[in-house]
Amino acid sequence: MIRISDVSKSFVLHNQGSAVIPVMEGASLSVAPGECVALVGNSGAGKSTLMRMIYGNYLAGAGRIMVGDVDVARAEPREILTLRREVLGYVSQFLRVVPRVPTLEVVAEPVLAAGGSAAEGEARARELLARLNIPERLWSLSPTTFSGGEQQRVNIARGFAHGFPALLLDEPTASLDATNRAVVLELIEEAKARGAAIIGIFHDAEAREAVCDREIDVSGFTPARAA
Amino acid sequence: MTPLLSVQGVTKHYGARLGCGDVNFDLWPGEVMGIVGESGSGKSTLLSCLSGQLAPDAGKVVFDTRADGPRDVLTMSEPERRMLARTDWAFVHQNARDGLRMGVSAGGNVGERLMAVGARNYADIRAQAIDWLGRVEISEDRVDDRPRAFSGGMQQRLQIARNLVTGPRLVFMDEPTGGLDVSVQARLLDLLRGLVREMGLSAVIVTHDLAVVRLLADRLMVMKGGRVVETGLTDQVLDDPQHGYTQLLVSSVLQV
């Protein structure tokens, strides 16, 4: 479902003496439907960079990033937007929402964006918020005033609302208590069972072992630093 | 599928000075495009050229009309362009006073647009006006007040109601949240985003506020000195800017 071949990336800092910082070279991996692959490596090895490139958030310098039949490294913005609506989901570490929108609508939005009805979206949002132990009295409020852990759970609910065939998870269990962590791991298992291809970053080793089928060490893709 | 708006090589000079140069992009149905850049970068000039308020020196602005398919707006006759501006386009000005009739009641401001496209039944017009005032969160008991008696945020919401009541397909917005305080901005952003999604609108939004484009725009175009220096998905341009000017722009935003 996700096939990456020979992807490289450098950052050019035009306002800092045009410094060129190569961050990735020859990255290749593939993930089959129903499989969950963990990206591992030290901080700064490029796990998030690789994930952001797959999502089209960072531009790839070279190589191919196939998600389904779209090459994210070359696709038009319009094609990436469609891919993100229908095929490729991303659970980031931070929730970014329009102020004042109620939590229920924030979670239901991906269902509507993918073409689901308002009723479907609401039903799915209610189910996920309840499973993730967000008290019902908060559902009609905007999540902007929620605690960090609550925001993270709303973000996860939103990420799992639509049944994306491919999912990117950036530290989905960070800052969660044991109960909610177990719920998130269940959600990941369910996504795998329905055939989603998943790439995740998990600093939580137990969580990683529980749901991931393989590990890929991204430090293998780090360019050799000229000393 | 054809683009709703296809902009090809649009160039405008003010004397020897470049207003905007060789701008090209396609806007697809349902897409929101943001244009950012500092003051004087040509964003507003471009918006005026696209919306038929200013004649560019060169280029084409092809709009996919309901009746005849894609047509160059710049070569249309004036009455045709005016009709299009009333039925298919909307223009939300930065300053609500530029987009409203200040001496006419709030209901009249909304109703006038309906009458311009042929509505004649007073009761229907009033009912639709009240419905739209409700959608932009202006209560029914203010329908007979003049916009002069409204706050800045309310005036802006009234301007949006006046513009969207005829069900346009393309909305041009020039700094729609400029000059409003942040709590009012948030309310307006929420409103705009809801309307864009419900009505399937396409929009071109000019602003210098990067937070506004991140929340509203699917795609982003960065202008400097009349030229487009970078385009792409909004989050990609903001998170991984390629051009030196965009990097400067993004890194200059104060973190809250």
CATH topology label of chain A: Rossmann fold
Number of helices of chain A: 7
- By DSSP, the count of extended strands of chain A is 9
Helix/sheet category of chain A: alpha/beta
Beta-strand residue fraction of chain A: 15-25%
Instruction: Please state roughly what percent of the residues of chain B sit in beta strands, choosing from under 5%, 5-15%, 15-25%, 25-35%, 35-45% or over 45%.
Output: 25-35%
Instruction: Label the overall shape of chain B.
Output: globular
The main pleated sheet of chain B reads as: 6 strands, mixed
SSE ordering of chain A? EEEHEEHEHHHEHEHE
How many E strands of chain B? Answer: 10
The radius of gyration computed from the alpha-carbon positions of chain A, rounded to a whole number of angstroms, is: 18 Å
Q: What is the tally of helical segments of chain B?
A: 10
The CATH superfamily of the domain at 1-88 and 170-177 and 202-256 in chain B turns out to be P-loop containing nucleotide triphosphate hydrolases
